[in-house]
Amino acid sequence: MPVNLARRDFLKLSGTTVAAGWALAACGGSSPSSSAKNVTYWAAFATPDSEKYFRQNLVDAFNKSAKGVRVKMDVKQLMTLGNLTNTAVAAGKGPDVVYADGPSAALSFAKSSKTVALDEYATKYGWQDKLLPWAYEVSKIDGKLHSVPVGYGSLVLYYNPDTFATHGWKVPTTLAEFETVCAAAKSAGLIPVGAGNSGYKAQSEWYLTCVLNAAVGPKAIHEALTGARPWDDKVFVDAITMFKAQIDKGWWGGGADRYFTNTDTDMFTGLASGKVAMYMTGTWSFDSADTFFTGGKKWDWAPLPSLGDGVLPGVFPLAIGTTLSINARSENQAGAAEFIDYVIADPKRMLGFLATTGTNPPPLKVSADAYPAGMDERVARLYKAIPETTNLGYASWSFVPPKTDTYLYTEFDKVVTGAMAPADFCAGLQKTFAAELAAGAVPKPFAPES
């Protein structure tokens, strides 16, 4: 969304897209009238253009139209917004409108009573009618709405068309085709698939989300998320074993010895220069990929290939990268809700944000013809494809509970180094998940259709 750390914290873009960080701590809009009551909001942006659009079209526009309420937006550094928010809200402080990098993080705030239920406002503003059903449902906790999703996307396979043309490769759709490209890229001295977690440890869950959805499929993941299938089931162990074997071949990130020094920036730089063949990561990078592809170079994307028997190619793991909630300590909860509604109320405004900056939009109910003319074809293609397919999967940070999510990407380091066997990793995953499931701390997943 707007303020998007498009996950991990949305833009988990390690280091560089973030470049200077833009810690502006600035306020939007003109000076408030004496009768207007402030609503505070902390935000972060991947690019100056994203900040400019959001400030002008949402903050300033809201402040001009609203009566008796004014939003004061403080812009934080992209890579620290999540931690700053967590620390402040946990201490009973923080802004009125609370950012989280997905339903799992928002769930933590709600379970600790740091944010309030939003059902009253959902009814008042008709949020259920505005949002896609799966996004509305996953935002509920114990049957009550606690967050509003304002930025969603997926994970896809990025590639450089020139690199593929030079080597005569076909974009893979099956495991066999994927292995063929990986082997050929390795032989040619390329990193077959970009990977690494230097600077941002949680990058590992991007790759795990891709591999699990593509190797075991949405149905098995849904069964695990609902407790019908354990996470240490053979299908998951086999998928992690395959992933580890591919890392050992040097296919992912160039191998285990390079995994912990590679950054997201390194991988996009390599993709643009022809030194990285493919990169499976999130569509939050739609708004920054062009910064690497200069001098007429172009990037493109394709749906994830199938990496397992019986799994259809082209799964789109759904990911909510930004949610907004209301701080339980807020003295203007009604004003905070009014601003949240303003963010999602006008599809044209948010699709304009997508068209102008590539920033992931809210999961709104919109028709294909609602997308602005002249919008980047690559971006429009994604948001037209998702509503038309039933092959939809699950991003870990949106559907896996907080402690399980943390386990997923922290303990995977041990799998990469060989210090932990895939079976033991999955056993620990199941143990952590089972405890959160019993505590009612698991976001509600939508039922798979394919």
From TrEMBL:
<dbReference type="InterPro" id="IPR006059">
    <property type="entry name" value="SBP"/>
</dbReference>
<dbReference type="InterPro" id="IPR050490">
    <property type="entry name" value="Bact_solute-bd_prot1"/>
</dbReference>
<dbReference type="Pfam" id="PF13416">
    <property type="entry name" value="SBP_bac_8"/>
</dbReference>
<dbReference type="InterPro" id="IPR006311">
    <property type="entry name" value="TAT_signal"/>
</dbReference>
<protein>
    <submittedName>
        <fullName>ABC transporter substrate-binding protein</fullName>
    </submittedName>
</protein>
